[in-house]
Specification:
Elements (H helix, E strand, L loop, with lengths): L8 H15 L10 H20 L10 H13 L12 H8 L3 H10 L26 H16 L13 H17 L9 H28 L1
Helix pairs in contact: 1-2, 1-8, 2-4, 2-6, 2-7, 6-7, 7-8
């Protein structure tokens, strides 16, 4: 009997966040589990950025070159479609902030403004782009750097100071929460995934606070 793994972009995002919650408490006794927290958190944040950006045709999440190829294929309408290429993590992060100027002008005037093609997050009347606060952008860059270090690990000795990582988790999970529930672009087709995401966001932030307290107690 064949065994199948069935998934989609929403399931991938939620399962990654669930993995963060499974691994995060373990870092108190064994810091090496930070590797799996970082990899899962990176995958989860990327997944929720994709959910917020994909829209109806999915082209917003592609590289610039891949997006052009797909638009050209749609215009040709010959049935020959190129291989899609997902944009890189930091470019997706830049895209979830796009449209901020138009959105803020809309808030000032109280009128509906039609965004430019570069205003990627302005898809619906209630859409809003992400606006970083505090250390959030710094944490996103740190997360990407550490994930790449672990995924592409070179032969070396490496010491990683981990006491600041709970803040990285808090910042990135708060971005996930905004994308999932406030940006107005994520359409939940399964209520159980939406409910699970709310539970996981709260759980992950609570766990990050617990880890941060344990580190302070060790000082």
């Amino acid at each position: 009997m064949a065994i199948w793994l069935r998934t989609n972009e929403a399931v991938e995002a939620v399962v990654s966040l669930e993995t963060v919650c499974e691994q995060l408490p373990k870092v108190i006794d064994e810091p090496h589990y930070w590797k799996w927290v970082i990899i899962a958190l990176h995958n989860g944040l990327q997944g929720f950025m994709v959910l917020a950006l994909k829209g109806s045709d999915g082209l917003n999440v592609l590289t610039e070159e891949s997006e052009k190829e797909w638009r050209a294929a749609f215009e040709r309408d010959d049935g020959v479609l190129p291989q899609p290429k997902l944009d890189n993590f930091l470019k997706l992060y830049k895209k979830i902030k796009s449209g901020r100027k138009t959105y803020e002008e809309q808030m000032k005037t109280g009128g509906l403004l039609y965004g430019k093609p570069s205003d990627r997050m302005l898809m619906y009347g209630r859409s809003q782009p992400f606006k970083p606060e505090g250390t959030q952008s710094e944490s996103v860059k740190k997360l990407n750097q550490l994930r790449n270090e672990f995924i592409h690990f070179l032969p070396k000795g490496w010491s990683l100071e981990v006491s600041g990582l709970p803040q990285v988790v808090r910042d990135c999970v708060n971005i996930i929460s905004f994308l999932a529930f406030q940006c107005g672009n994520v359409l939940w087709h399964k209520e159980e995934l939406e409910v699970r995401t709310k539970e996981l966001v709260e759980k992950a932030i609570g766990q990050a606070d617990m880890v941060a307290r344990s580190y302070k107690n060790e000082v």
